[in-house]
Amino acid sequence: MYQQAAWIISVVLILFVILVFLYVVAHSGQRVEYEPIQKKGYRIRNVWFLVVIAAIGLATFYTLRDLPFERPAHAADPTVVQVEARQFGFVLSRNEFRVGEPIAFQVTSVDVNHGVGIYDENMELLAQTQAMPKYTNTIYYTFEKPGTYQVLCLEYCGIGHHVMTATITVVPAQEGEGK
Length: 179
Ligand code: CUA
Known about the structure:
This protein is of the alpha+beta class. It has two domains: 2-64, no CATH class; 79-171, Cupredoxins -  blue copper proteins (Immunoglobulin-like, Sandwich), CATH 2.60.40.420. The chain has helices at residues 2-27, 34-64, and strands spanning 79-86, 89-92, 96-98, 102-109, 114-119, 125-131, 137-142, 147-152, 165-171. The strands form two sheets. It has a five-stranded mixed β-sheet, with no helix packed on it. It has a four-stranded mixed β-sheet with strand order 2-1-4-7, with no helix packed on it. Dinuclear copper ion is lined by residues 85, 114, 153, 155-157, 161, 164.
């Protein structure tokens, strides 16, 4: 939704800039008195200032209200999994889950900054966050298909960055042991 709104606003503003440019080009040959133009300009500037303040205020209110994005409503009581990143691997407190089980991966690092990317079998990125020392970042995710998933480091963290992986197994809903 925000993506689409951003598109539409961008296109409208680009058209506006083009129109202003064309207006300026069309009138650039004329000689006119400076003072009335300046007065008019100042009036427009005052109105524009209020419009911008109102627009930014509204946009801030409506977009900040939805933060954090991507937190599913059903994650009120998720399975909490500790994910510890280190040079060069991940330690997950659990790595087998059921389809449909809401999970909160609590990600941190014991040494340097890493990234945590969860990939499906086609190596498509499903969710990701940073693994930072002394911070915990949470990924809320619910697997929809059984299978083997890969966790890859997404931040260059040293000589073994490319071997920094882990595996997650997701079993059909009825086979899992539950939490
Ligand atoms: Cu850890 Cu790259």
